[in-house]
Amino acid sequence: MQDQLSATTRHRLNVQGFEGIPDQMLAEVAPWLRMAFALCATLAALGTIAASSAVLGMLVVIAALAAIFPVYPFDLICNYGIRHATGTQPLPRRGAPSRFACGVGALWLMGVIWAFQVEYHLVGYILCGSLSSVALLVSTTDICIPLMIYRAIFGRAKSVHEA
User: Fold this and answer.
1) 161 is a domain residue
2) Is 73 within 8 Å of 30 (Cβ atoms)?
3) S-S: 38 plus which of 64, 98, 125, 139, CB 3.0-4.6 Å?
4) Which three-class secondary structure string do you get for 5-43?
5) What pTM did the predictor assign?
6) Rg (CA), the chain
7) Distance between CA 67 and CA 70 in Å, rounded?
8) Concatenated DSSP letters for the chain?
9) Is the pLDDT of residue 134 over 80?
10) 24/27 Cα distance (integer angstroms)
């Protein structure tokens, strides 16, 4: 695993609400923080390709749980499995900015499901394709557009690590 974070990565993780976590600890788990977004992007893409309300509905539930709780459902895979194999620390709790982004994702997915249900397939493909792209962006670069929107609206809020 990484020993250090670049200033750019540190800034992007701060935007996500990971302020107040020591750099060394965050450097160790930073790659695993992306895993939840990669899994969301994958499921959203599969749900889109299949125009499957069932897959997308499951993802709505996952995103809604991630919006409510400070631990993403997908983070549990790392915290209770992968970290033991890799010898890393558990993932830190996610703050309000990340939970806001998941809430946006849940609403976005409900719009996609609606579009597929009323047979506006092109709208569904465009909406879910763009959602998958946003999730892919954050899973590869730590840049999250909904988090930027959160910060533009609310500014720098306390993270769960500072509360």
Assistant:
1) no
2) no
3) 139
4) CCHHHHHHHHHCCCCCCCHHHHHHHHHHHCHHHHHHHHH
5) 0.84
6) 16
7) 8
8) --S---HHHHHHHHHTT-TTS-HHHHHHHHHHHTHHHHHHHHHHHHHHHHT-HHHHHHHHHHHHHHHHSSS-TTHHHIIIIIHHHHTPPPPPPP-HHHHHHHHHHHHHHHHHHHHHHTT-HHHHHHHHHHHHHHHHHHHHHS--HHHHHHHHHH-SPPPTTT-
9) yes
10) 5
Letter string b/e over residues 115-144, b meaning 16 or more CB atoms within 10 A of that residue's CB: bbeeeeeeebbebbeebbebbbebbeebeb
Instruction: Specify the pLDDT at position 156.
Output: 67
Determine, yes or no, domain membership for 160.
no
Is 103 within the bounds of a domain? yes
Angstrom distances, CA of residue 131 to CA of 37, 125, 160, 163: 11, 10, 26, 31
Q: Which tokens in the block code for residue 111?
A: 């719009």
For residue 163, tell me if it sits in a domain. no
Please give the single-letter amino acid code of residue 18. Answer: F
Span 2-21, mean pLDDT?
85
pLDDT band at 2 (very low <50, low <70, confident <90, very high): low
- Count structural domains, the chain: 1
